[in-house]
Amino acid sequence: MQEEPISFTPTFPEAVARFSSFFSKRDAHVIICFSIFIKLMMDKQEIINIGEVLAKELAKASSKYSIKSDHYDILGYESAEIEKIAKSIKNGSADTSMLSQSTLLSDWGAILEHDIPELILKVKQYRKLCEDFLNSNIT
After folding, report:
1. How far apart are CA 121 and CA 139, in angstroms?
2. Over the stretch 73-95, which tens digit does the pLDDT of each residue have?
3. Taking the model in full, what pTM does it have?
């Protein structure tokens, strides 16, 4: 009876180690460039994934409020904004100007400050993460 090989997705360091084993010391610059490229691509996908999850979380939070309430509108608009940012990063069309307008972080959104402080913090952190990524000029 033949055993099935165990398959797994290697971690970033494991992937780099496997890749680098094919090259000699003189090719170190290639390995470094490849490592940076892979890490950045992983970061980009992670940022997209975080944005998609956060947009869903905001939409779910909005459903807890009356459709006629400001709370519902604020969270719905923020959900759409976060989803738009994630899609723009995915398509390579995002820029930092997209990050300047946040419904949830505006004066209007302040009415939710005590209701959902953790979600507000997530939105701030996500927008900062996107800003740092976009300012790195690697999209």
Report:
1. 25
2. 999 999 999 999 999 999 988 88
3. 0.69
Between CA 26 and CA 35, with CA 32 as vertex, the angle to 5 degrees is 140
Closest alpha carbon to 82 in 108, 102, 96, 62: 102
Task: Locate 50 and state its tokens.
Answer: 């975080």
Domain boundaries, the chain: 44-135
Place of tokens 């969270």: 75
Contact status, residue 126 vs residue 82, Cβ threshold 8 Å: yes
Quote the CA–CA distance of 113 and 128 in Å, as a whole number: 18
Looking up tokens 């170190």 gives 28
The residue behind tokens 């290697």 is 10
Question: What is the rounded (10 degree) CA torsion for 135, 44, 130, 91?
Answer: 90
